[in-house]
Amino acid sequence: MAAADSAYHARAAYLSPLSTMLDPSLLPSLLFLLLAAAFAGFVDAVVGGGGLIQVPALLSTLPRELPATLFGTNKLASIFGTLNAAWRYARRVRMPWRTTLPAAFAAFLCSYAGAAAVAWLPPDMLRPLILGLLVLAVIHTFRRKDFGALHRPAHAGGRELAYATVLGGIIGFYDGFFGPGTGSFLIFLFVRFFGFDFLHASAAAKVVNVATNLAALGYFVPAGHWLPTLALLMAVCNIGGSWIGTHLALKHGSAFVRRLFLAVAVLMILRYAWDTLHLS
């Protein structure tokens, strides 16, 4: 009973003004969440996958909260960092808008559909499939040393539009339905199917990710599935991490993004393997 009272006290604090959240008993958990948000923003700005850091942090800190509320809080906190990264990339990198915008529009529409589909299809069914796809992506990237090294767009005209729409729709549905690792999958797909280098792929992925996050928030926020004060505090830290990550990606280029992509993808494989074995 005491644990339940503590959990509800924490939730009330995270819904309240900032002065209440500075209660000394809540500061350690609040600091943990803010540090997690900063690190998630850093990783997400470079290769995606920030949700793999931010969501578990929220789940462990507020274990009795509804998962949908934590997902909504995560989306609101992360979208600001993603917007910051997209803006900074757009200022320094020649953005492939003819591919990115159709993909973002399709992703926006399908992300909302994916969020709604959670109600009738358990997301855990996707874990083995995602694990297999991640393994293939890492093997492909590791074996081809020149993969994503040069920016050579592979499509144009109607074919470019068709590929972008299909790619955006699939990844948008995935992000709304399941979510973790969306940015990393986007980067790999932009490199593999569009001939982008890792830097341009990361830049394009941020724009598409903003669209999917907006669609998901359109589902979570009206339903009350978010903790406003906590989300905004985490958003500030997410922006800080995003600024550092984008700066390093722009400074060191595709080689840096490729190395971090492989590192994050391997961690995602380990995480999904553990979850799959643990839940089976």
TrEMBL record:
Major localisation: membrane
GO cellular component: plasma membrane
Membrane-spanning parts: 69-87, 99-119, 125-142, 163-191, 226-244, 256-274
Keyword terms of this UniProt record: Cell membrane, Membrane, Transmembrane, Transmembrane helix, Transport
Protein's membrane topology: Multi-pass membrane protein
Keyword Membrane tagged: yes
Pfam family membership, one: TauE
Subcellular location: Cell membrane
Family statement: Belongs to the 4-toluene sulfonate uptake permease (TSUP) (TC 2.A.102) family.
Protein name: Probable membrane transporter protein
Organism field: Denitratisoma oestradiolicum
